[in-house]
Amino acid sequence: NIPPPSEEMIKSFTEHLIRSKRILALIGAGLSAASGIPTYRGAGGFWRSYSDIQLATKTAFDEDPSLVWQFYNYRRHQALTADPNSAHHALAELAKRKPGFLAVNQNIDGLCRRVGHPPTQIIDLHGSLFRVKCSNEACGYNAEDYNDPITPALSLTKDYDNDVTKADIPLAKIDHTDLPICPLCTDALLRPAVVWFGESIPADKASGIDKWLAGDTFNQATAGLDSVGGQVDLMLVVRTSAVVYPAAAYIQQCRKRGARVAFFNMEVAAAGAARPEPGDWSFQGDASKLIPQALR
Ligand code: BJW
Questions:
Q1: Would the CB of 41 count as within 6 Å of ligand 1?
Q2: Looking at this predicted complex, what is its ipTM?
Q3: Which residues bind Zn(2+) per the record (predicted)?
């Protein structure tokens, strides 16, 4: 049982929030936990017997694309059937109130965009479950795709959620030709347009964030015209363990540029980038209640 944050802490945070013009929010998987989407490193972070991290690599895809597509097809289905929660709404509302707010979203589930977060004020750092690209980089195909299932061979059974998640129910072995094939080169497989381990964040996104941090008013990554330049006043670390780089490094970068930092996590990290420093705020507890309360 986590005690609620004190009135005094909420008051000092709110005063700073009201004064803040430029705010960077680093968003992680815990934001969507209240919408029923499992986090990566918490309970439910395993799909069948695999950790997400074992499947979120190019090597896993090259070795067993049938397995990896079944994993992503399931997660697309899960995200499409989930409802955004009150914390997604509160962040979108804050973005609308503060033209100098930018969300660096590590989540690929699309829930932030579904609540109307202004598209020029969010960067989906790790890509999207609802974009696909050709696995042959030279081809260059990259497009939105919301089909559920993504291809008939991955069709959903009556008890799909059970069949596809229970490790003792064997998975189908789907032939290459029945997996999503690139419509442009008509040869290579499509893959999810997400950033797997060992892959680089797309250069336009990384440099867009760097420029925003440096005080630029034009955001290259979102093509947004941010009317508010200058230093970063506030960094919100929202439901991320901040162990994955380069995302985690934005916390220290904002700190160095004079921003005050507020953590909204389930537990207080003992080490690493998510460890609060003196002068930070650390709000612990259920994001779907705390975030709307703090960002009012
Ligand atoms: C709740 C809750 C509840 C829980 N209610 N809250 C520097 C140092 C060390 C390593 C590296 C480094 N630089 C690069 C690396 C390597 C690597 C890396 O960071 N590894 C670390 C694990 C050590 N990084 C990369 O490979 C990156 N690429 C790169 O750097 O390229 C350059 C390069 C190229 C070639 C060679 C070397 C370098 C790419 C990283 C891409 C990450 N991709 C993933 C998968 C996306 C696709 C998919 O989903 O399938 O992105 S990994 C996964 O982790 C996903 C997430 O976005 C990301 C972050 O996870 P997040 O959001 O923090 O989730 P959790 O679960 O960890 O935390 C949830 C939080 O919620 C917790 O705080 C809980 O308290 C809270 N919570 N339950 C409310 N019920």
A1: yes
A2: 0.94
A3: 134, 139, 182, 185
